Amino acid sequence: MVKVGLIGLGTVGQGVVRLLTERRDLLARRLGTELVLKKAAEIDPERRRISPLEPERLTSRAQDILDDPDIDIVVELIGGTDTARELVLEAISRGRHVVTANKALLALHGNEVLAAAAQKGVEVAFEAAVCGGVPLLLALRQGLAANRIQEIFGILNGTANYILTQMSEKGASFAQALAEAQAQGYAEADPTLDVEGIDTAHKLAILVSLAYCAPLNLDPISVSGISNLDPLDLQLAREFGYSMKLLAITRNDGNMIEARVHPTLIPRDHMLANVSGAFNAVYLTGDAVGPILLYGQGAGMMPTASAVVSDILDLARNLIHGVKRRVPPLGCDAALESPRTIKPLDEVVTNYYIRFAALDRPGVLSQISGILGKHQISIAAVIQKGREVKGAVPIVMITHEAKEANARQALREIDQLPVVSPPAVFYRIEDPHLHAAQI
Ligand code: NDP
Ligand code: HSE
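A: This is the predicted complex of the input protein with NDP.
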């Protein structure tokens, strides 16, 4: 028999209780012995009341879980980083294996947590932390272990993807789409982490680490979110054949690694362009396997609980068979000691969508294109929307590949032109067809 202690009976915790209690027989058959939820801690009395667990298996003190010498596996599902870090480190120091879904904890304190676990000879499992129910980390750690990962594009935040889908399909403003996401229960009351790209960056830090055998490092990941998006740009992007997605992007060019999170234009025939609503998807390329697409529910009670319980089963199997740390948590034993250099965003080379508000007069376009040309930025396509004798009109350009530093400098100079109403709006594009067109 393997005994589990659970801390946090919120959305995910309740799903885990359901699976561990309602699927008890199935899990016992799969494991070959019983998996018992010995105790659960929750400070919110309302949530304790709706739990199917008997009162003797419920406590308001997380410490009761850590103090119980019978518990083999501690599951942390409280979220946040301070108390979660303390509880997880204490569980490890007491020789307990840990399962968590907490991507913020891993991105900010993961190296400390994993080093403590390695020293103590216990496991920390976190499949649910990226893409919820989609077994992405398992794939990176084991199924793709023979590959060098060349690039990963991920839609890793369901809330942001739901908002972008509403804006794109219904022409909703950001505020309207966010309100709808909140009404549907996708977005938190404070949606900052989701809409500002921070949650996606936490997840990308984990993917970078697993993909390239490197310590967890959130700091060098450049992040911008979707809260300032104008539906006009989604509509204009569509006219050029693009969809807007909040993407986590990492790419290994052999020397340096790109790691960035930002709204990105991708061709509408790209598989990720059709991932809508609250779904997640990851499109990655390994040098041996080629491209792979993983798609599914990255959030929600049961999808996330599915991943948490698979981790519990995995650790329980290790316990039963007396095996320890057979697969390192970051897929590589040296991961915590081999930092990788992340390419500064200024050095990244990509294509751009740029929208200017400019006077509709002869010579305006040549002033703008002259500055772009001076900074080695070549224009692939341009449209002007409408005709305006007095005011400004939107002019949209799609560029060939250019260095980010050059693009930013050019836009600073263009914003100074008297014929332009600053600031210019720009988004990065990931489009293999544009690369090919330049050759
Ligand atoms: P919730 O906020 O729904 O649940 C957390 C619960 O833990 C709350 O009931 C909270 O009570 C309780 N809690 C907080 N501190 C303590 C403590 N010290 N002792 C006991 N209970 C405590 O969060 P979720 O279930 O949504 O998320 C849990 C974790 O899973 C997070 O790390 C999250 O990032 C991650 N995750 C969530 C997903 C999702 O779809 N929801 C998807 C993937 C990962 P109170 O409300 O009173 O503070
Ligand atoms: N807030 C996250 C999302 C939860 O919307 O995807 C899953 O990590």
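The longest strand covers residues 242-252. The first helix runs from residue 11 to 22.
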